[in-house]
């Protein structure tokens, strides 16, 4: 087709007229869910695009269109930088009409966007960030923490270590909000059980790749347990190097936060025998397998971990709430939406049934897994053996100990 | 037990040794950078991603073709070196007449593209790469437990660094190279193909980075970000050593590895910053770097 001035003019005219001739009908206002996480850095596999895919899966499973809802999931990369995350969040709320902030790993980032969500009265469904301060001293009525936190990790993994005789600890800690909180929570637990903390090496995050110096220090401390208060690539590197230096021969390694993706990166030869805690495993039961079967075609190289499952579960529960409240109501008041979410029981394929406590803590069950050895593993990503299940109301910090400010005690 | 500054002696010696091992990586990477800067006047920001490519190349050789560690020590640098030559021929060579800044921006952009492509294909958690059987295990040195593989890294790095230095400073090929950077038209008048020389130099510098990448693969997880974690420190090393000084970057690489190692004992939080602190002090007192020649 040749492009004449006339044809261009008609097209432009038609295009501008188009919005006018659309049938005017009452439609539910659009709900926007913003997944803000690390799409390119050290936490991109444990959250990243797979989180976005799982949130979209919830839209599909819920059948938003059939229920007359108009929902969109958007995403952005916060590069683990609190300042960047805050500016994206503000832009999303002020300009793009985002109603829900989802995922947001990296505790320092989560703490920063927490106050923005509260200020703008939006909904913040945290899945990726672990710091237990988010439902404690830094709690907010606009906030729910979905499937794990530092207290639960230390209680489940750390508790099992102490029970097995690991009564003296040395910590290797990523020097930021998450690592410090995890170290604090675990130290408290170890001391309460009569154990000792012999020392710690807080290393700069991000950017540390070599842990050998710290590992040698840990070795010479004489502690029985090496507690790794880090995540993602750091955990993988520190375990790899611990094996290289024979630390695993003289100390027990407690990988306090480790995901199935980290196990995959490490290989079973090195990871086999480690204990770790997740609240979701793809091969746990028929429902988790069915969920995994649904999302896997969209993320073939990365099996879902508890964060991914959490993004699915949180989105699904939010959608149920929106359907019950009405989209206009849900958009208007973040606190009211959160309260509605807390008042209803959570139920989905990934976590079964759970209840959200008034401080925003979703009380899912915690599973202590042992990583299989290469001989035990029968197929791709067949990595975990279930050892202990701790119910949600036991594994998380009791409400009163959190000192959350908006809870009247 | 001997105590030094309140730290048990054996621990301190251990840290010195570990510092040297890390320094070996700094030395190899900064050596490549120094060679490229010295000959091409290009600040090669893509160096980190080429280092990463070296590690990935050895991973791919093993997993797709079953080629083990030792052959890939030669093959991977060769492959990545060829990739570097293609980069130089097609893209980088267009910038020689422009200001340094353009080369820096271009190579920085290239590194983002390369890392992005690898992240897209392989995710960010990384891939496992086994230490070759012959280098498994560790030796008890009395004051510390030394993994055999790390010993091998220091040895290999030293050999490679010193031979590079010898080639550039002590052979006639090196002399031609150095002459070509001083006065290209004159050397060309003697019948030397200067553009080809420059291309090969870039390829060589890149191959050095890839070699370091292969050495790093069994220690760190092979992941797309492994280069960007190193590159800032390595640039500081080059600046401290003096841009373009070969021996300077080798010595500074090892030296700063040791400084960093000691910081990890006394104040771990500062271990990522200490190199830059040294850089500030050096730039204030000796702006051309510790081993840089006066203009």
From the N-terminal CA to the C-terminal CA of chain B, the straight-line distance is: 50 Å
From N to C, what is the helix and strand string of chain B? EEHHHHEEHHHHHHH
Global structural class of chain B: mainly alpha
Give the neighbour order of strands across the main sheet of chain A: 2-1-3-4-5
Q: Tally the beta strands of chain A.
A: 14
Tell me the Rg of chain A in angstroms.
Answer: 23 Å
Largest interchain contact: A-B, 44 and 44 residues
CATH topology of the largest domain in chain A: Rossmann fold
Task: Please characterize this protein's 3D structure.
The complex is a heterodimer of chains A (409) and B (295). Chain A is α/β, with parallel strands linked by helices and 409 residues long. Chain A has 17 helices and 14 strands. Chain A has two domains: 31-148 and 284-364, Rossmann fold, CATH 3.40.50.2300; 151-278 and 366-395, Response regulator (Rossmann fold, 3-Layer(aba) Sandwich), CATH 3.40.50.2300. Chain A has helices at residues 5-21, 48-62, 82-94, 107-119, 150-163, 177-192, 212-221, 232-244, 247-250, 260-266, 268-271, 286-295, 306-325, 327-332, 334-343, 392-395, 399-402; strands at 31-37, 71-77, 100-103, 123-126, 143-145, 168-174, 196-203, 225-229, 252-255, 275-278, 346-348, 352-354, 366-371, 384-390. In chain A, the strands form four sheets. A five-stranded parallel β-sheet of chain A has the order 2-1-3-4-5, sandwiched between helices. The radius of gyration of chain A is 23 Å and the shape is globular. By secondary structure, chain B is mostly helical. Chain B has helices spanning 9-40, 47-65, 69-90, 100-122, 148-170, 172-182, 184-189, 194-216, 226-241, 246-266, 274-285, and strands spanning 3-4, 7-8, 138-140, 145-147. In chain B, helix 1 (9-40) packs antiparallel against helix 10 (246-266) and helix 2 packs parallel to helix 4 (100-122). Chain B is globular. The model of chain B has no long low-confidence stretch (mean pLDDT 87). Chains A and B meet through strand 7, helix 7, helix 8 and helix 10 of A and helix 1, helix 4, helix 9 and helix 10 of B.
């Amino acid at each position: 087709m040749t492009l004449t001035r006339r044809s261009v003019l008609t097209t432009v005219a038609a295009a501008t007229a188009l919005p006018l001739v659309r049938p005017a009908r009452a439609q539910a206002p659009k709900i926007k869910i913003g997944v803000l996480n690390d799409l390119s850095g050290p936490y991109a596999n444990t959250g990243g695009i797979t989180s976005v895919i799982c949130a979209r899966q919830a839209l599909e499973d819920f059948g938003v269109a059939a229920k007359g809802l108009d929902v969109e999931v958007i995403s952005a990369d916060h590069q683990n930088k609190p300042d960047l995350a805050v500016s994206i969040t503000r832009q999303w709320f002020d300009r793009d009409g985002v109603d829900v902030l989802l995922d947001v790993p990296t505790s320092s980032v989560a703490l920063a966007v927490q106050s923005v969500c509260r200020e703008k009265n939006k909904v913040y469904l945290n899945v990726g960030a672990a710091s237990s301060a988010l439902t404690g001293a830094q709690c907010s009525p606009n906030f729910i923490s979905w499937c794990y936190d530092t207290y639960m990790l230390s209680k489940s993994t750390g508790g099992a270590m102490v029970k097995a005789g690991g009564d003296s600890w040395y910590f290797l800690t990523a020097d930021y909000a998450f690592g410090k909180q995890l170290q604090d929570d675990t130290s408290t637990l170890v001391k309460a059980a009569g154990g000792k903390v012999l020392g710690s090496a807080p290393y700069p995050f991000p950017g540390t790749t070599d842990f050998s110096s710290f590992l040698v220090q840990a070795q010479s401390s004489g502690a029985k347990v090496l507690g790794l208060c880090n995540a993602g690539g750091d955990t993988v590197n520190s375990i790899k190097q611990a094996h290289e230096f024979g630390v695993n021969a003289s100390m027990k390694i407690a990988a306090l936060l480790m995901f199935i993706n980290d196990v995959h990166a490490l290989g079973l030869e090195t990871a086999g025998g480690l204990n770790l805690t997740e609240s979701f495993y793809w091969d746990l039961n028929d429902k988790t397998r069915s969920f995994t079967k649904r999302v896997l075609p969209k993320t073939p190289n990365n099996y879902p971990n508890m964060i991914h499952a959490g993004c699915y579960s949180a989105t699904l529960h939010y959608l149920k709430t929106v359907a019950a409240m009405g989209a206009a109501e849900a958009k208007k008041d973040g606190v009211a939406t959160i309260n509605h979410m807390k008042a209803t029981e959570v139920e989905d394929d990934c976590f079964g049934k759970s209840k959200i406590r008034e401080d925003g803590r979703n009380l899912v069950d915690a599973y202590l897994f042992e990583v299989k050895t290469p001989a035990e593993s029968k197929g791709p990503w067949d990595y975990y053996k279930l050892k202990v299940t701790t119910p949600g109301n036991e594994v998380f910090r009791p409400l009163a100990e959190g000192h959350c400010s908006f809870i009247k005690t | 037990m001997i105590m030094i500054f309140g730290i048990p002696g054996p621990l301190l010696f251990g840290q010195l040794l570990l510092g040297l091992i890390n320094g070996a990586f700094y030395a190899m990477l900064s050596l490549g950078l120094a060679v490229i800067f010295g000959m091409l006047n290009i600040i090669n920001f893509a160096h980190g991603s080429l280092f990463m490519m070296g590690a990935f190349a050895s991973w791919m050789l093993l997993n797709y073709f079953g080629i083990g560690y030792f052959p890939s020590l030669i093959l991977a640098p060769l492959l990545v070196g060829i990739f570097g030559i293609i980069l130089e021929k097609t893209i980088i060579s267009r910038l020689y007449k422009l200001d340094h800044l353009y080369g820096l921006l271009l190579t920085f952009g290239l590194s983002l593209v390369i890392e992005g492509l690898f992240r897209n294909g392989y995710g960010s958690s990384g891939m496992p790469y086994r230490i070759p059987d012959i280098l498994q295990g560790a030796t008890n040195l009395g004051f510390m437990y030394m993994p055999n593989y790390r010993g091998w890294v220091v040895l290999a790095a030293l050999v490679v660094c010193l031979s590079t230095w010898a080639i550039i400073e002590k052979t006639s090929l090196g002399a031609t190279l150095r002459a070509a950077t001083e006065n290209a038209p004159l050397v060309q008048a003697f019948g030397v193909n200067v553009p080809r020389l420059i291309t090969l130099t870039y390829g060589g510098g890149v191959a050095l980075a890839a070699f370091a990448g292969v050495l790093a693969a069994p220690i760190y997880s092979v992941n797309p970000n492994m280069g960007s974690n190193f590159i800032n420190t390595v640039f500081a090393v080059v600046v401290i050593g003096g841009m373009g000084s070969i021996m300077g970057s080798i010595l500074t690489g090892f030296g700063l590895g040791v400084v960093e190692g000691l910081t990890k004992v006394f104040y771990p939080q500062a271990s990522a910053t200490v190199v830059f602190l040294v850089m500030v002090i050096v730039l204030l007192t000796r702006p051309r770097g510790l081993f840089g020649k006066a203009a």
